[in-house]
Amino acid sequence: MPLLRPITRSTALLLGVAMLVSCTSAPPVDTPAQASPQRASPPAEPASPLLAKVYRIDPAASTLHILVYRGGAMARLGHNHVVSSPNLQGSVWQGASLENSGFDISVPVNDLVVDDNAARATEGEDFAQNVSEDAKLGTKANMLRDTLLDGARYPDIRITSIRVQGDATAPVVIAALRIKDQTREVTLPVALQTSGKRLQVQGKFEIRQTDFGITPLSIALGALQVVDTLTIKFALVAVAD
């Protein structure tokens, strides 16, 4: 049973715009984000160390979920969203030490999927299934418009490692995240597992839309709004060349 219970069709369309116009995700309570507001230089094309083992992302086996939460006094009239990427691209390299390891990953913006039922099911009771196709299409169109993600001018979101530190199986990565023309440093605690030619990386982190120059949509004097803080969950599978 969907969380959205509109009084009229026009209300439903308005809520669809309100709840996913930002294409990112946030928890029900606006907790402090892990992303630093510190500006990072746009990532240059990284070069993996010559002796590093290089793994290529398998998009069919990898998942990226961006959770978008409703907020405000009228939040009960909206519903939460899951934005997923079926086409992650990039590579991970594993050197002799963590300092010689890293990754460069891009997320094709125009390929993002809004409210896939399977993706919503994995995220629990906050994400009821069976969002209408009209709502999905309308939400994606708003998400890609030039005042938001601007998929025509900025077709990729990119995240590139700056340094890797800590334990080999549970490292902490400092990375440069670029959304549109804004780049910020983010901290990514990850779980890392290798088996033969296969590498698996899992993690979760938060960002604020406003740190990237995006103003979360707010209507009715803030009674219905998109929460600023966004949660991003990933489970990457990569295969060695």
TrEMBL record:
The keyword Ribonucleoprotein does not apply. Residues 1-26 form the signal peptide. The keyword Signal applies. Residues 54-239 form the Lipid/polyisoprenoid-binding YceI-like domain. Keywords: Signal. This is Polyisoprenoid-binding protein YceI.
